[in-house]
């Protein structure tokens, strides 16, 4: 039975569709207290006093804690310390100390017998502020009063290679654009939540809801609490979406378990939407000053980008990952002889930033691909042709780009970029006619195309255990976590393949730090690649061991046996042993076990990988602009994407479609705006607009498997982000095309109010 | 640092003494329902009807189930199927089918929103019985109306060797006694309890409270419920005593998880004391017709015993283990040239029986040692001298006794029985004077001595995992369970020794089927021997691996390194690596791991053993009989016990002292009596008398380590039962001595009412 490549129905849907999923808020512990965070109402102020008296006095309130109670607790460390920057001066404390630096920053926490009392009490905590004036613009922040003693520039990153100055000097045409990407982020259906229960008798702490990188978060928490790691057990739960922000270590990830331990009662916290919109990592906000040097024939000679990355008030767990990725991925799938990228990571009085699905690529692809459209028009070259001319050709792959990102060398591992471009262009041939027809009706329609490079499968490793029971059932203890992406199904397929069993007979346990203490978590489109490869190695090891044990049981040479359909079979039909029987033969005390051979038919394997693997794709959008309102409607959308190998094509398609929906949000609707005092203007879904089914067209997908990755045993490349990476670019290009703009659109999101200013009628 | 042999304070007391232990009833699940069992009120009757209408109608009642609902569920299987007897016709169903066979048998179960409603509703279940007449006497039951279609004799066991007929024919003196051992059992401070929670989304079932043999119980439950084993997780809890009955698979162990799954709600059940006294395994009830053949010089020539073993209404999980052990252990530490033991296992309308601490040895030692005292008097030989003359001498050890029990050959592995006897006799030299002084005051005082053989360390194997964290902490996932015996401390010591760490740095997790799926549980004085040896092997493997990894890290040959005090040290002080650093070097992705070497500094090892190991001991009691009431007071008590090697002498002594207290109960006070209709007369602690501190003297102990077991790496023999084994014998002998009886005491317990009939004044 072959599992790889099958459109197996999602195993997790058995429970999710019946309402039997278990999310963080579904965890209830008898006697639990409920936490409510008191959040700063000033964007930048010195804390004069925090009066907790009234809150403490409210019946049902168990405790109110402030920064004073945690002044000896270390700030939250960086998880991904790329580039070796010292960010220690910019880290966020778990509760504000002396100053607050953004509206929404935790300044106190109330614990009460029920969540309503906790919320009421939180409103009774009186915080007095001495306003220090909000620093809100990334550009001007560099010279503004300092948020931190170390200033407002956390890091300056320079990535590049080649002689850019010479390239630009030699250019026939230089095209430059200034482009802003709006501040927005993921808004998963389910806000965050956490439940912690401390057993004072054994000193063990159990935590539910840390769904993303539970093993890392355990390490951080152990260090902050001064507990041995093995005393802490984190359980990932079902999660209503991850997309980057969920599961990073936030102040609440300390406060909830710390208070559970301190108070000797379980503590539960469920984030509400208003909190979510100011508390979780924001993302995306960058200003790009990008310029490209072209020869007369459209050959790209050099690329420069100067990025101001507005990171908000603190450096959080991602450190400078997003600006670094922005720069490292900016050259994309193109032949870029010389490149100079600079990013200044600036702090402002806004919610701190982290990753959001396709971090750096959404921003950089928009900048580059929008520039290319402007350049093509300027050069008088067809926009597709300009790209085709500059794409790396298959014979140039693998392509070592003299850059380093997230501690890895950039080696574009496998691909035929022009072929995928041609496939996409052929697919949308009819769309051009549709645009023409719409225009003939006097409507503002346009087509936008963008080519992009993705990255996925960040190592350095992940570990998995595969275990077979005496009843023949297979279990996987994986280091991944299930954020809704279907990873249980994919890992079950990956484990099932070498064992020849039905993926339905495989149960995948994700994100339990006790069962898999070495898990790397699910992020960066790494689960199928890295966790999946670990599962494959472990399943292969189990299969090999099953055959070895079967040889002992059956008394035939191993070479005469093979594993097929969950049965080890020999030369004749009577020579057979099921996997379950092989597992039974590995029970302790079995005569079939060799000396010191551990009991149980199981194996743990680690998959290690040095480089990321680089999928790539093409987005095409057909958009129409309403001349009266400036509203943009995306009428058609195509994602063509190369994944090397699709373990489950349906899930890859699902990832792409979902990504496009979020891409439409980032391109047209979603934006965290602030007033001049740093008060957030988008603190509910009335103001923070996310696309619904009405705003999302039927997305067409082409998933190709032309270039399997040579760097992992599955040949896969991650597919988690490719639906989003080029959405800003493709939609911006379509709007520009619809409006016939000579230059760029200037900024995302292309909200109606912004687009109306771009309308020819407005310009004229 | 040496851990073995140290009087390390019990690690578990840190929580237990602070009230932070977690017992089954401490587990509460949100939304839990509460179970109450409806128990038969007739001893032997056909079920005419069960009317659940009124119970169902009571507000708060969720479900009422009867035998009809579980008629397709297999009966509870035998766990220890010794001797190959087919007991399938005598197994207990989870709820009575058609007939009830003892008062207390589960006939229905009520589940309600709170335990009080459940109890009220249980009383509203109307059961109509057609009385079939109670069969209550083991002796007459063999010819009485059948309880089961297959009759009332479940099995007849014959064990023996040599030519007994010839031995008796050649005898100078034959001494015969008929002795009854009263029905009693363990009454741990904490009655049983169980909590089950089924997650319909994942199909996983979690159960708390199965503290004894959770891995076995999981297998049984999986089979009865039709679930894969790995979907069920059993957690042993702290337990207020085990002693044999606790943790076996009882009807409630099915009903609670089955109803949790069926109703989709957690279900909790806590046994009350009245239930406990009729529901858990009874034990001990046997009639012995024992006779011994002696040469004129007191040399034992042959031994015969005919045992009627009253097993109550069903064969439970122990099958015929207790009668088999009774026969197999009866020859004890003596040279018995010919032996013939027969046991008839008879069913009666009383609570079914199982093991109680020192099963078969309490009974058999009483029979043999009481007989020896009568024989010594008859032969005119000193009672101690008669024993000394017949004890196996050290040069006869190891002694292969041509018997088989629990599937193992009886090989008395190591010992110097006469030496221990001499030690004990020397210790109590002054006690003879005390008896004389009491007698001189006209008081009825007597000294009783008994020598006994114990058995322990039943295999065939146990499995343990030892894991070292990067913070240097050590964790053990053991197959044992913690019933109060201090096993956490002992296993921590055993793991600490080869690693050279403080036992306090070792955390032992017992009885979690997910963490240790191969555990054999704690029973039969096996934990230190078998689970402990597995822990030692795993710890040694971890130590070895730590040194190997250190050699790679430090770049020196393994041979130059050794592990001491938790540090791997080389020839010079700078060559050193802590265990934690070695563990960090085993993290996934570490360059110090070999290819396919699983991540993590851990090891799983199985200890296998063919034979049991046989500790032995001497009990001496100084008792006084109140001439007015017949009340017996134990004034002094000595246990001398050989354990091979005491990992923690304090805990061995504690085991011995606790055993004596229970022995006093069985010898003098505890008895389950029934009226003629089979109604239990001891259903509360008003009637079932257990010794308190007032009835228990200060127990003196001598723990010797003269004869380490050659069969395990620790040299240990189990110490769980030796405080109890000879208590009936020693106290009966003391009473007989006090009363100057020419024959035997006839029966245990020697309650005041029984003793008064033995008083010389009464006899005369």
Automatic annotation (TrEMBL), chains A, B:
Residues 18-133 form the Aldehyde oxidase/xanthine dehydrogenase a/b hammerhead domain. One of its GO terms (molecular function) is iron ion binding. SUPFAM superfamilies: CO dehydrogenase molybdoprotein N-domain-like, Molybdenum cofactor-binding domain. InterPro entries: Ald_Oxase/Xan_DH_a/b, Ald_Oxase/Xan_DH_a/b_sf, Ald_Oxase/xanthine_DH-like, AldOxase/xan_DH_MoCoBD1, AldOxase/xan_DH_MoCoBD2, AldOxase/xan_DH_Mopterin-bd_sf. Keywords: Molybdenum, Oxidoreductase. The keyword Oxidoreductase applies. It holds the Pfam family MoCoBD_1. Transmembrane segments: none annotated. PANTHER family: ALDEHYDE OXIDASE 1-RELATED, XANTHINE DEHYDROGENASE. This is Xanthine dehydrogenase molybdenum binding subunit apoprotein. It comes from Nonomuraea polychroma.
């Amino acid at each position: 039975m072959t599992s790889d490549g099958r459109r197996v129905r999602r195993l997790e849907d058995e429970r999710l569709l019946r309402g039997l999923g278990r999310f963080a808020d579904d965890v209830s512990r008898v006697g639990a207290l409920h936490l409510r965070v008191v959040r700063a109402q000033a964007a930048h102020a010195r804390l004069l006093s925090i009066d907790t008296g009234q809150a403490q006095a409210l019946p049902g309130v168990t405790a109110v804690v402030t920064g004073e109670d945690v002044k000896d607790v270390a700030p939250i460390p960086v998880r991904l310390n790329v580039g070796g920057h010292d960010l220690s001066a910019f880290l966020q404390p778990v509760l504000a100390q002396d100053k607050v630096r953004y509206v929404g920053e935790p300044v106190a926490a109330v614990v009460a017998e029920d969540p309503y009392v906790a919320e009421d009490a939180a409103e009774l905590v009186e915080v007095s502020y001495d306003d220090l004036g909000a620093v809100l613009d990334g550009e001007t922040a560099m010279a503004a009063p300092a948020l931190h003693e170390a200033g407002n520039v956390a890091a300056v990153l320079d990535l590049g290679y080649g002689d850019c100055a010479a390239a630009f000097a030699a250019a026939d045409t230089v095209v430059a654009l200034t482009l802003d990407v709006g501040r927005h982020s993921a808004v998963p259906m389910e806000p965050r939540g956490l439940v912690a229960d401390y057993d004072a008798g054994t000193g063990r702490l159990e935590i539910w809801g840390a769904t993303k990188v539970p093993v890392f978060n355990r390490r951080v928490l152990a260090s902050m609490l001064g507990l041995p790691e093995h005393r802490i057990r984190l359980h990932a739960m079902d999660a209503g979406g991850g997309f980057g922000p969920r599961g990073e270590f936030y102040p609440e990830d300390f406060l909830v378990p710390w208070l559970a331990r301190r108070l000797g009662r379980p503590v539960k916290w469920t984030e509400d939407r208003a909190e979510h919109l100011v508390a979780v990592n924001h993302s995306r906000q960058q200003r790009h000053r990008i310029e490209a040097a072209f020869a007369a024939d459209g050959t790209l000679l050099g690329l420069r980008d100067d990025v101001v990355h507005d990171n908000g008030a603190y450096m959080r767990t991602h450190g400078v990952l997003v600006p670094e990725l922005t720069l490292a991925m900016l050259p994309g799938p193109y032949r870029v002889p010389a490149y100079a990228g600079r990013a200044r990571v600036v702090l402002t009085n806004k919610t701190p930033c982290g990753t959001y699905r396709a971090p750096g690529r959404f921003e950089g692809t928009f900048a580059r691909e929008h520039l290319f459209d402007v350049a093509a028009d300027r050069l008088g070259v067809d926009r597709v042709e300009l790209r085709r001319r500059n794409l790396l050709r298959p014979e140039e792959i693998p392509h070592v780009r003299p850059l380093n990102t997230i501690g890895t060398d950039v080696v574009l591992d496998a691909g035929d970029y022009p072929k995928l471009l041609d496939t996409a262009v052929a697919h949308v041939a009819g769309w051009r006619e549709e645009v023409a027809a719409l225009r003939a009706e006097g409507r503002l329609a346009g087509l936008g195309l963008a080519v992009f490079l993705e990255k996925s499968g960040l190592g350095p490793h992940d570990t998995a255990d595969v275990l077979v029971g005496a009843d023949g059932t297979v279990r996987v203890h994986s280091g991944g976590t299930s954020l809704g992406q279907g990873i249980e199904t994919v890992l079950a397929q990956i484990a099932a393949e070498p064992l020849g069993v039905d993926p339905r007979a495989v149960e995948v346990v994700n994100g339990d730090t006790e069962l898999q203490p070495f898990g790397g978590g699910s992020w960066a489109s790494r689960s199928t690649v890295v966790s999946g490869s670990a599962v494959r190695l472990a399943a292969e090891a189990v299969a090999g061991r099953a055959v070895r044990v079967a040889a002992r049981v059956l008394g035939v040479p191993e070479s005469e046996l093979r594993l097929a359909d969950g049965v080890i079979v020999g030369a004749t039909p009577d020579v057979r042993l099921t996997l379950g029987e092989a597992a039974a033969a590995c029970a302790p005390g079995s005569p079939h076990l060799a000396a010191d051979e551990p009991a149980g038919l199981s194996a743990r394997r680690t998959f290690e990988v040095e480089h990321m693997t680089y999928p790539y794709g093409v987005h095409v959008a057909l958009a129409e602009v309403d001349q009266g309102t400036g509203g943009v409607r995306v009428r058609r959308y195509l994602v063509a994407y190369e994944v090397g190998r699709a373990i489950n094509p349906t899930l890859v398609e699902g990832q792409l479609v979902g990504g496009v929906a979020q891409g439409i949000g980032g391109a047209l609707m979603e934006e965290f705006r602030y007033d001049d005092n740093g008060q957030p203007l988008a603190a509910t879904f009335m103001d923070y607009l996310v696309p619904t089914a009405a705003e999302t067209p039927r997305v067409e997908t082409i998933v190709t498997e032309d270039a399997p990755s040579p760097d992992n045993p599955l040949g896969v490349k991650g597919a988690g982000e490719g639906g989003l990476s080029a959405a800003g670019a493709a939609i911006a290009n379509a709007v520009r095309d619809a409006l016939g703009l000579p230059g760029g659109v200037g900024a995302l999101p292309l909200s109606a109010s912004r687009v109306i200013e771009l309308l020819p009628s407005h310009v004229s």
